[in-house]
Amino acid sequence: MGKNGRFGKEYGTVVEKEKKSRPGWKGTSYVKKAEPANAKRTTADEQNNSSTVSEAAAPFELQQLLLNIFRDTFPVVLGSETLQALLQQVKKALYERDFAQAFGKEEFLEAYAIRWSPSRTLCYQSILLDISKYTTKMFSSYKTTRPKLDQQPAADDAVIMRIICFGGGAAEVVAFGGFLRCLESAFSRNGDGDELRAFEGMDIISFSGESSPTVLNQQSSTDICLSTLGRSPRFDMCLVDTAQWQSVVYKLHENITSPPPLSKYASSMAKNANEALAAAANFGVTFRQDNILEMTGSQLVDILGGQPGQPMLLTLLFTLNELYTSSIGKTTAFLLNLTATVKSGSLLLVVDSPGSYSETTVGTAAKKYPMHWLLDHTLLETQKARGSESAPGWIKIISEDSKWFRIPENLRYPITLENMRYQMHLYRRV
């Protein structure tokens, strides 16, 4: 986030459904009232738009667990009488593109995390499930890595996926925690010594606290291919940003890897079933404060893990357009350094506001270029121009120019959640 380019004046085009009245309250979470007429008009507008409308792919219970992590990590902030004032200060600074102010205090970072990150988390979770048939194919080339002596023990047959989130923060760490849970659940049910198979809406994923299993949404689960996994998954995740998100990220990670708090009146069955979203041994998270646009090639190699020897998943989630806005030249150099560093088979996931344009000067005239055009020009065409024998460094696997993510109606959270519209592009290093 910060000046690495997380948000401009539209805050990543988070689209809010305006309410005529505040929701009612019951306990720690609100109970949504009847949907007003203007919300129905918003839905109609979404459908009339050329965008694809996407429902959440993850089971409802998992989405609620992800929201609960934000709620349980920052209960003091959520219950603070100064929360609205904090949010207004952050929003004003973001609008003015004063990222040093918006993310300059821990209280601002926590306020941002509980207000805008939950909606993005659910959206990212949906995207990760949509592309899982590509990410899980990378597992077959991974080497089993035994944990260091100072780490918690892990199964000998575990395999690690390396994930680098440029401009990453609160939303990414929780979304990947949920994605890991999906993979672990599918593996535990289907990986009884045999190779996992792709499941076509019939396999069941169960989550703690639920006495009955939940069937994955059939439309999205057909895209989930775990046939090449064969070993239990682990994530090694690094988030890179200029803002000081360390404390927020590590607090969220602690709650992801710890059993959620229960009421003192919870039944013995509930207590026995209570478990963490992800095991600490299987979900390693580190944060590095750095300016993406100022990194040298050697610094990038260091972030990617010294001498990267296996494919990895790289993400730029609501980050790339702000990087281009800051400097097209530096952003292009960063992407070329990334291309030269990562191994063949690595994936690059780019998610941003639809219709994002960046302006650059050609001669004496300024011209605006679509973000996805600049990205394609760098990844798919630039190396061709260097010589007839040259080949592009990447191939594009998926491209969505405009897509809606809609929040399920019955999810509970103390703050109103919002729908999102985004563009998404997935590339594979050749």
UniProtKB/TrEMBL annotation:
Record's InterPro entries?
Methyltransf_34 (IPR021463)
Region (Disordered) residue spans? 1-52
Pfam hit, one: Methyltransf_34
> Which protein, by its recorded name, is this?
25S rRNA (Uridine(2843)-N(3))-methyltransferase
